[in-house]
Amino acid sequence: MAAVLATMAMGTAAGCSGSSTRADSRPAISTVSTVSTASNTSNASNTSTASTAGVSAVRLDGAVYGRPADGGTQVFAATENNTVYALSPTDGSVKWSKHLAAPFRPHGCGNIVPLGITGAPVYDPDSHLVYVVTEDPDAKHVLYGLAASDGHVVSQVEVDAPVGDRAFLQQRPALTLWHGHVFAVFGGLAGDCGDYTGAVASVDTATGSVHWFEASTSGRGGMWAPGAPGIGDDRLYFSIGNGNADKAGEPFDGTDSVVALDENAQRVDLFAPTSWAADNANDADLGSMNPALAAGHVIIAGKSGQGYLLDPEHLATTTPTTFPACAAFGAAAVDGDVVYLPCADGTRAFRISAQPTALWHAPKANGQPVLSNGRIWVTDWDDGELYALDPATGATDRRFAVGTLPHFATPTVVGAKLFLGTTDGVAIVTP
Fold first, then answer.
1. What is the DSSP string of 228-290?
2. 408 pairs with which residues across the strands?
3. Which InterPro entries match (predicted)?
4. Would you tell me how many other CB atoms lie within 10 Å of the CB of residue 108?
5. pLDDT, tens digit, 9 for 90 and up, residues 82-109
6. Among the listed residues 174, 209, 172, 216, the one whose alpha carbon sits nearest the alpha carbon of residue 195
7. What one-character-per-residue DSSP string does 53-95 give?
8. Are 429 and 418 in contact (CB under 8 A)?
9. Nearest to 299 by CA among 341, 261, 335, 268
10. Which of 102, 117, 123, 328 could form a disulfide with 289 if both were Cys (CB 3.0 to 4.6 A apart)?
11. Within 10 Å of residue 391's Cβ, how many Cβ atoms?
């Protein structure tokens, strides 16, 4: 961000470990490689043996929930201990690290403890800054811009939502850089406790000004789907979870919906199913999936398993097409008119047309799918495995044992390697 933002220059400490330049004095990080003679076999029933061959691990100072960010010559990973790491894309060695604050410890509910940097970082190739949102011991949320070269702090902006109690907010979705703004999206803690309202902060990287979108007029309406929003030409598409308006006859409060926002987080369109009150009452809302764009449609499928095709330019005024989808959690992968949905019971592929067609189902591969190098890469975060699936059939090509994974763990493909957050660092897979 420009100098008009509050800045805090940080020098580089002298302590080095191997070839890694440390930007603070936290304990050294150990890199552990694991190799196995187990073999992989390919078949459509997903019964291949998971292998540790080609898998190495970089142990960091906390769990990595957010998808690592590709910075070209570096890969950026951020931990729940509020530390950002720059890793070598060739061998995963730590080039620098920067500890920004002690983390928050939620009380009453929540399933991530401690709570530091949870949403995936985003890298700006123009300014060469990497952005993260921390949560400190007082539950204050701060958007930092760090220099990609050495991790020193270039900018910082407080992004606590204007409504509710910040102690019950969580910045879970991936940060998004769009039209010169960084979008930070907020929902509640697991358990849906406390006084909070879902929100989106749009931070102008040139001026540091913050514009807000509030998701609900009645409270709650968490915006927590872990991937990035759907990106259109002049708007972003977000999903909103269940709100407090949940009885027939109550005024609509904006929740259980897909909302389109402009660069200043102003709402330009919105879709909500006619069942929104019942969805809210039964925790069957759309807020668990990030909207996807494919074949001229916005695709959304939330917790209920009901899929919708929406008109991107007319969310509110066009009758949607419905189709049997799945309970979907996170971001889909898209290839032309084929969408790979992040289903709780395993990835499902659909061809998008006037009436979507189901193509295949890969049980157990329940993470957020990523399409790269002719394969669908997706985790089974229950069993700590990474799958390589055939995009045409869903058959398992290979499986890798990658260690204990956080919910919705998603790989980042950098060249010939995959970088995947784990509960104690980053796994690096060389297929």
1. PPEE-SS-EEEEE--BS--STTSPP-S-SEEEEE-TTS-EEEEE--TTHHHHHHTT--STTB-
2. none
3. PQQ_b-propeller_rpt, PQQ_rpt_dom, Quinoprotein_ADH-like_sf, WD40/YVTN_repeat-like_dom_sf
4. 10
5. 999 999 999 999 999 999 999 999 988 9
6. 216
7. TTEEEEE-SS---SPPEE-SS-EEEE-TTSEEEEE-TTT--EE
8. yes
9. 341
10. 328
11. 18
Tokens of 1: 């961000």
Cβ proximity of 40 and 399 under 8 Å: yes
Element (H, E) at 187: strand 181-188
Q: Is 232 exposed, middle or buried (0-12, 13-18, 19+ CB in 10 A)?
A: middle
C-beta of residue 60 within 8 angstroms of C-beta of residue 411: no
Q: What is the residue whose two structure tokens read 């690096």?
A: 428
Cis omega (within 30 of 0) on the bond before 68?
A: no
Nearest Cα to 294, choosing from 344, 237, 226? 237
Tokens 């509030």 correspond to 214
Yes or no: say if 191 and 166 are a contact pair by the CB < 8 Å rule: no
Partners of 377 in the β-ladder: 370, 388
* Helix/strand/coil for 365: coil
Give the pair of three-digit tokens for residue 360: 């295949």
Cβ–Cβ < 8 Å for 321, 354: yes
- Quick one: pLDDT at residue 254? 97
> How far is Cα of residue 420 from the mean position of the Cα atoms in its chain?
12
pLDDT tens digits along 367-403: 999 999 999 999 999 999 999 999 999 999 999 999 9
Please give the helix or strand (H or E) that residue 131 lies within, else none.
strand 129-135
Tokens of 123: 């890298």
φ and ψ of 151, to 5 deg: 85, 5
Report the candidate in 186, 316, 183 with the shortest Cα–Cα distance to residue 262.
183
Phi, psi angles (nearest 5°) of residue 116: -125, -105
| CA pair distance 17, 20, nearest whole angstrom | 5
Residue of 382, 378, 415, 417 lying closest to 398 (CA atoms): 378
Q: What is the pLDDT of residue 48?
A: 59
Enumerate residue ranges in the chain where pLDDT < 50.
1-47
What are the structure tokens assigned to 222, written together? 């968490």
Alpha carbons 358 and 223: distance in angstroms, whole number: 28
